[in-house]
Every structure is written in structure tokens, then in C-alpha cells.
Fold this sequence. Notes:
The protein is α/β, with parallel strands linked by helices. It is built from 13 helices and ten strands. α7 runs parallel beside α9, α10 packs parallel to α13 and α12 packs antiparallel against α13.
Amino acid sequence: MTSALTAKPLFVTVGDNPARAFGMAATDRANALAPKASLEPASEAAPGRSTVYANLDWTWDPEWLNALAQSPGAILIREGQAVLAHVPADGDPATAVSAMLSGAAYQGALEQIDADNAELSYGALRKRGRPFVMRLDPADPEPAERAAYDASYKGVTDVLTLYLWRGLAFHLTPWAAQAGITPNMVTAIGAALCVAAFFLFLGGWYWTGVLAGFAFMVLDTVDGKLARCTGQSSKWGNIFDHGIDLVHPPFWWWAWAEGLAVYGRPLERVYELLIVGAIVLGYVAQRVIEGIFMRRYGMHIHVWQRIDSRFRLITARRNPNMVILVFCLALGRPDMGIELVALWTILSLIFHAVRLAQANARRDRGQPVTSWLE
Length: 374
């Protein structure tokens, strides 16, 4: 049996709020987010258990739950009011709960964290920032939805994901939540589009394939944001989503090269195999380098120094490669597109190999290798 000393902190909501962000009641959404921060939702506190209390008049970045879960004796304050409070097992929650219910300024003994000044490092999302805390308005939950969506976005990713379809994916995310569509459903629809794009490229139907591919890429953004914003993330969903992301790109590039014969611009067979081989081997080698860097230094290679984060915007991954292919397709030269993807893959591989060697040299000199986001 788990002892009180090793049990997860409890999570108890305070007050009521009829707002329905992402189509969910405020209490239900808060209780769905809590387990992701290793908190156990409960209707009330229990003897011998530390408890995080959440004021439902406010909404907050889930990263605050992670921070408060690890900070017994702390209280998150915004505009003088209590938002989240972690009361230790031997503490008295009365002052914090009373302040949450009345809306009065908190004047208790818990260590106050000012939401307007504190910054946190989002390790999983590769960014550093000030997590949001804002009032949850029942008449207009969209600002809360947008804040939660923006908070779930990776800070270091490719240029298309970061800028091009960020707005479109935002509107799709709350719509999907309100329609009862789960993240895994979104991933499944995206997977079907991914397979469709493969066969369309293979048949030389490039523009139709690009349309299917871009739809898949947008949904690839929506499923993760939907999971984080509604507390529906799961180990299986993460494997499903990232497994598709990891496996499909080489198949797309091979299909594109094969489709050139149907399109009317075939590559000589040996040359085609060299082109596709360079792309596939370069892609795999880059992933291996990323894995080595992660294992050795405990962080993504893309967040080591600012130049690595900037290069991630355009590095030879699926989305930047698609930009190259579409540009050349618009010129009527899909064959040149796959050639340029191969060249860019090799150049990106060289960049990452050099960065790994530089990190190793820095470590060998006894210097720390840490992220510029810390």
C-alpha cells in the first residue's frame, strides 16, 4: 500500500465556473490536466496528504501544475489573488481556500509566487517563457483557449509549423474538442491522409498529393495541441503520433522519385537510387545524431545554442523539404525538387555532425554543455 509520504499530492478545485473552454466544464478540464502533473484529482483533501487547490475563476498554463506539484508550501498569485496553492500534509488550507472563494487578496504564510514575474523552462516543448495565468470568462472562453493553445506550442520547430498554419490549427483544435473528436481520432485521419499522399506521389499526382500531405501536416499539429489542451495525452497516443512522424518521410521521398516517370521527368535508375539513398541515409543519420546528443547531454541538439534553434526552422525535415518540392513543382521541375532535397539533407547532416563534434570537444575541455533556454 502506498504511504502518505510517497503518495501523489491530491488536486482539489475550489469554487465553480460555468465557462466551457475547449467544450469542457472548468472542473472537468482542470481534473483532466491534473494527472499529467502527477496529481490525483479528489473532491476534498484527505488527512496526511498534501493537496494542490485550484481556483476555478482562473485558468493557467498546465506547466504551473508541474511547478506547484513539486513545491509544497507555495502559492501562485496573480493580481494579489490566489490561483493555485500547494498546502503540505500538515498545513492548514483554510486561508488559501477562503481567499480563492472570496476573491480577496491572499495574506497567509505560504510562499508566494508572482505569476507576473516568474519564468519556467518547458523542457518537452523546447522553450522558456512566462506561463500564462488569466481569468476564465464564462462569456468568452476563446482568450483562454488561445492562451492554452499557444502555451502547448513548441518554441523550437520548423518554420511552417511555427508560423504558416499556427492560426488554422488553432481554430481546428477547439472545434475538434467541442465536436468530441479525440486526439487519436485526429491522428488516425492524418495517418490516412499520409498514406494517401504516398500513393498520389507514387502515381505522379503531385499537386493532389501535396494537398493531402499538407492536410496531414496541419492535423499533425492539431492532435498534439488537442491532447495537451484537454488533458487527453496518453502513452499510446504519443507512440502513434510520433511513430508516424518518424517513419513516413523516407517513403514520401521515394514515392516522389518513383512518380517522376509517370509525370514525364524520370531520373536514370542508378541516379534515382543514389538520390533516394542519400535522402534516406541522411535522414536516418541525423536522427541518430539527435539521439546521441540527447542521451549524452540530456537535451535536444536543437536547443543547445541559439544557432541550433534557428537552424531547426529550416533543417532537412519533412516540412522544409516539402517547401523545396512544392517550389520546384510550381516551376514544372519535380525532378529538380528531389535533387535539391537530397542536397539539403546532406548539408543538414554535415551541420549536425559538426555541432555534435563541437559539443563533444567542449565537454572534453571540461566546459558545460547546456541549453541556451535554461
